[in-house]
Amino acid sequence: MTIRPAEPGDHGAIREVIGAAFERGGSVEALIVEGVRTEGAALVELVAQDADRVVGHILFSRMTCAPPRFLAGLGPLAVHPEYQKLGTGAALSRAGLDGCRRLGVEAVVVLGHPAYYARFGFSAASARRVQSPYSGSSAFMALELTPGALNADTEVAYPSAFG
Which domains, and CATH codes, for the chain? Predict the structure, then answer.
């Protein structure tokens, strides 16, 4: 399996993976991905490829912050059901976080399953000073990529594609 940057020719396959990965067909998640691309807010977008088949996808989006900070939002992460529980999502997540570090992203927020994202260092405690529509939920977590990046109160807004 190879993790690589997504290319325009992958967009159809990414939509299929998202559709297969999410219970209700992934239409909302697919529209988010397409909208973030259209807005120019995609920071890191990767696919997992097995032979000639795209089997996973992850997107990190630029967040709008006050005061201004370089933060990213992780999501959606999608892995085709045939490749779930095989480390595909973990490989995408680690590679995406590395890509964010290379870009100089200070911190990453995610709205997701606490037990899953904790393995990468995300925690609700790290997000306690981050204000968003999801603040206070145990599913809203953050990971500092630059120590101290989240020591001050920060208000974040997702790209408009998140609705």
Answer: 2-162 (3.40.630.30)
